[in-house]
Amino acid sequence: MYKFLTSMSVLIVACATACSAIAQDLKGDAKAGEKKITLCIGCHGIKGYQASFPEVYKVPMIAGQTASYIASALSAYKKGERKHPTMRGIAAGLSEQDMADVAVYYEAQGRTQNAPVLGKAADGNAQAVELVKKGACVSCHGESFSKPIAPNYPRIAGQHADYLFVALKSYKTEGHSTWGRSNPIMGGVAKQFSLAELKELANYVSSLPGELKTVPQSKFR
After folding, report:
1. What is the mean predicted confidence (pLDDT) over 97-115?
2. How far apart are CA 164 and CA 198, in angstroms?
3. Alpha carbons 201 and 156: distance in angstroms, whole number
4. pLDDT tens-digit readout, 197-213
5. Are 91 and 75 in contact (CB under 8 A)?
6. Rounded to the nearest 10 degrees, what angle do helices 67-79 and 96-109 cross at?
7. What is the mean pLDDT of the chain?
8. Which CATH number fits domain 2-220: 1.25.40.280, 1.10.760.10, 1.20.120.1200, 1.10.10.10?
9. Is the pLDDT of residue 132 over 80?
10. Alpha carbon distance, N-terminus to C-terminus of the chain
11. Is the peptide bond before 54 cis (omega within 30 degrees of 0)?
12. CA 131 → CA 194, 201, 206, distances in Å?
């Protein structure tokens, strides 16, 4: 277990450094991004909206998410590293600049004045504590689960539990043509756990205070 975590730590640092360097080369424009979210708001602009593939779950809250993570996720859908027919179809029509613009727009949508600084997350039940420790979750997502160690990692505190569960399961999926995620870090983490344990982790992280939210567009208010 120690060797596994050590290897993961080395890989995490290497990936974070490389992705951060790439992100710095391309700057997004939030005003431009606002004009490019037409295909996003139908799902991510409606509070409580549910997806139905590969199962029913609430679509993730992305307002307040880190811009680098949103851009990297869109890029992964476009490349097929994340397999989801709808998201891949949307991402396929976006340039890298489009992705950067949309990403900074959504990150800015989550900012609020005088927002409290989130400290170390409160411990969950005994099982949740052990699962978080086993997965070394704070090594990427931070002690609050809302301040990741690198901007290309997601804020996950307060995210919908059913979405988190589906996302975690997708890292365990292999050989499926339309569903699954290829990520060496998360794949290695998720495959350590049973589905019941992943659900416990998802419920715990979802219960934490976070910075993510859904910001309805005017047509959906």
Report:
1. 91
2. 9
3. 11
4. 999 999 999 999 999 99
5. yes
6. 140
7. 89
8. 1.10.760.10
9. yes
10. 49
11. yes
12. 11, 7, 14
pLDDT, residue 116, reads 79
Give me the residue label for tokens 């060496």: 184
**Beta bridge partners of residue 82, listed in sequence order:** 181
Only one residue has tokens 């997965």, namely: 135
| Residue for token pair 């699962």 | 131
Lowest mean pLDDT among 52-61, 105-114, 118-127, 140-149: 105-114
Give the pLDDT mean for 78-90. 97
Residue with token string 């450094």: 17
In this prediction, residue 112 carries a pLDDT of 78
pTM of the model: 0.87
Reading phi first (left if > 0) and then psi (alpha if -120 to 50, else beta), residue 82 is in beta
Token code pair at residue 163: 């979405």
What are the boundaries of each domain within the chain? Answer: 2-220
Q: Which amino acid is at 212?
A: L
